[in-house]
Amino acid sequence: MESPDYDTFEVDPHPGMTVLSALFQIQEKYDDSLAFRYSCRGAVCGTCAMLINKVPRLACRSQVRDLLKDKVPETVADEDISMAGEDIYWNPEEEVLVEPLPHLPVIRDLVVDMELFFQYYRFVEPTFRPAGPDPEKERLMDPGAVKELGVYTNCILCGACHAACPVVGENPEYLGPAALAKLYRFHIDPREAEGDSRLEKGDIPNGWWACESYGDCYQVCPRNVPPIIAIRQAINQLNKRK
Ligand code: SF4
Ligand code: FES
Known about the structure:
mainly alpha, Ubiquitin-like (UB roll), two-stranded antiparallel sheet, 10 helices, binds iron/sulfur cluster, binds FE2/S2 (inorganic) cluster
């Protein structure tokens, strides 16, 4: 892999300024060719995920001043997820290090090619397949099931978990935490006709079984989705049958 270049820019971080706003300031003041993705600017669309101080985060939700005070969490501040693949020096008290999401090819600057991520997402066939004919009014669910499903439906497909997962880094054929969490979400949906076929879909070497329980996926998720819990529960269910 070609070694990336790093540039340093000085920004004036007003209170509440996010990394995304800082990138706009850099674009306006210093480099109008700087490429990065964003859409909603409100932590909803998931497009602005990038590696910020070596942790995958949403640029629109990460405030510059907080990052300067922040200690880089040791569990995910591993050089393995740095784009440089080598030590890069930055002063966390005065600087914010911004890099593209790891584990996906860089198209330009902070923009990565998400094709592989979405290929795995499509592989799990993330569409609702209702059981039986359509009801006259609605499909009722008990509150417990709604609560459990809700945890997984919060995913905004930002790719932060994919970027943080050491297994994805080692094995690009691993479906990854986001796709598996989605698969589990449909497995537990009581309205689904598919039953256990969702569980079986992930019962492949690069599915549930490839997870090594690092848990970085849960730590970095901006929506508190716990892919590791989904994967462990799927594995427990499969083990009970064997
Ligand atoms: S599970 Fe969380 S980190 Fe992973 S894609 Fe969904 S929202 Fe992003
Ligand atoms: S711009 Fe939509 S999540 Fe950040």
